[in-house]
Amino acid sequence: WPSAFTYYKKKLLKVFSAKAILLKHKEKPGTILDINKDGILVATSKDAILLKEVQLEGKKKISAYEFACGQRLKKGVLWD
Fold first, then answer.
1. How many Cα atoms occupy the beta-carbon half-sphere of 30 within 13 Å?
2. How distant, in Å, are the alpha carbons of 1, 9, 24, 31 from that of 44?
3. Of 8, 15, 21, 52, which residue is 20 to 30 A from 61 by alpha carbon distance?
4. Does residue 32 or residue 79 have the better pLDDT?
5. SS in 3 state form for the chain?
6. What is the pLDDT of residues 22-48, one digit of tens each?
7. What does the pLDDT read at residue 24?
8. pLDDT beyond 80 at 2
9. Hey, what CATH topology would domain 4-71 get?
C-alpha cells in the first residue's frame, strides 16, 4: 500500500492517509496547528498537512485523532 512515513519519539510512524491544506501560518514547520476528529494538522514550510490515518511501529493502523489522543499530543507543540 502506498504510504509516507515520519518518526515519532524515534519510532517509525507510517502515514496512510493525509491531505495537503493551503493555510497561511507563522509557525515553525512540524508544529501541531490543530487536533480534531478530522486528524492532526501539522505546519509545513509553506502550508500544512492533515494527517488522517497512521500506524506507529509495532501497533495497528488507527485514525490520526485516536493516535493524538493516545499520545496526548497538544496543539502548539513541535512534532517530536
1. 6
2. 24, 19, 10, 8
3. 21
4. 32
5. CCCEEEEECCEEEEEEEEEEECCCCCCCCCEEEEEECCEEEEECCCCEEEEEEEEECCCCCEEHHHHHHHHCCCCCCECC
6. 999 999 999 999 999 999 999 999 999
7. 92
8. no
9. Methionyl-tRNA Fmet Formyltransferase; Chain A, domain 2 (3.10.25)
72-78 long-range contacts (CB < 8 A, ≥24 apart) are 73/32, 73/35, 73/40, 74/32, 74/35, 75/32, 75/33, 75/34, 75/35, 76/31, 76/32, 77/31, 77/32, 78/28, 78/30, 78/31, 78/32
Q: How many Å apart are CA 1 and CA 24, to the nearest integer?
A: 31
